[in-house]
Amino acid sequence: MTPARYDVTLDRVGGPTRTIEVDEDETVLEASRRSGVSLPYGCRTGACGTCVGRLLAIEGAESGDDTTDADGTPIDVAEAFAYRREPRALKPRHRDDGYVLLCIASPRANSRVAVGSRVQSELVDNPWK
Ligand code: FES
Fold first, then answer.
1. Got the DSSP string for 84-125?
2. Residue 101 Cα: closest atom of ligand 1
């Protein structure tokens, strides 16, 4: 059976927005490389956080603001992505805030994800987070 394919829009803060097609059995990082869209990465095992993005919206549940759907309910990353392995670089509160590790995340819905250095620095560069 042909794997399902989803559109993942990578919304680069301060840069271009690109939509790529991602099969349900590949990761967003793998699809971005196949599509010629550059995304930073390091370990590719969910350990370093270099590839992090933040989920903005799931198709059919457009966000009320950056972290909630139209009803004010927090967006659940698990509705948009399944992880290939444990996302060790994310603390539970990061997952609750919509951060997603694109090197190990495979899509389960069409979605829009913020990427770029600002998203990464929210997570990685601040030792107090
Ligand atoms: S590249 Fe290291 S967590 Fe994704």
1. SS--TT--HHHHHTTEEETTTEEESS-EEEEESHHHHHHHTT
2. 4
pLDDT band of 71, cuts 50, 70, 90: low
pLDDT in tens, 5-18: 999 999 998 889 99
How is residue 20 written in tokens? 């790529």
DSSP secondary structure letter of residue 42: S
Mean pLDDT, the chain, whole residue set: 88
Residues with CB under 6 A from ligand 1: 41-44, 46-51, 89, 101, 103
Three-class secondary structure assignment of 48-87: CCCCEEEEEEECCECECCCCEECCCCECCHHHHEEECCCC
Residue 126 structure tokens: 């601040």
Residue 121 has a pLDDT of 86
